[in-house]
């Protein structure tokens, strides 16, 4: 675990350096970019951190460029039922001795932020209340209440399948603790936990009666011998959505949606910016609908493969590197499109 933490520190330092050097051909404030985001378990809220770079000076001599500037992180929360951003003035984590923030976990009432100081040293997390839109417990307060907790990294957060909104983290002593976000006290817990930072909704697998085939672009066909039925469409780098939380260790079947399953695919082979979401009928393999997902720009590292999904009945919430979308699962229509960073 120490190697992971050291790698994370180097990663955070790289973030700061890369952000200061990115898009430095212009003096002044650069286009803000999303750094990290997470849904609450029900999808009611989407909390995310974005970063803004202000370039003070820029000089280019030959093939070498030098820039100076500042990097500021902000926390924002969206009510996904209305699309409204709740914080009129986004929170600056650095005001709470949090130079490098990471989203630890999001519940239906609180956001837990993991922090590192200006030296890259992990600190105790702080608690943000969604209802009051304020930090109710600072990292200093949590550290004073829980001396054994130590510094908590962004990779130290876990989910309990029995209590999806519980804040569970691994402390520096290697034990799992559950944090009470109201009192700030943490108690040791045991159980079957899964790490939040490796939660992947695109890990779904095709039903066992189906399989992928094809060279380059892939199509779906019936696995049984003697049958030639195949999908009416083929897909570039298809992924199958497993909505909800995994309950099996060896097989995660794609979620059934009205007798079909959802396929996320690229439209060009050298970029993940432009993607299609399709609903394929599990019996006929016909595509019922296929919808392009808007994604205006990449995240802090100019990456695009960051999609997250939450199903709410016949509605689907989608978050990517720039947008928060609400879709009708029966028609594929996008009914709401929120720009995460204006």
From TrEMBL:
UniProt xrefs under SUPFAM superfamilies: DPP6 N-terminal domain-like (SSF82171)
Keywords: Signal
InterPro entries listed in its UniProt record: PA2928-like (IPR048161)
Signal sequence, start to end: 1-18
Domain of life, per lineage: Bacteria
Protein name per its UniProtKB record: Esterase-like activity of phytase
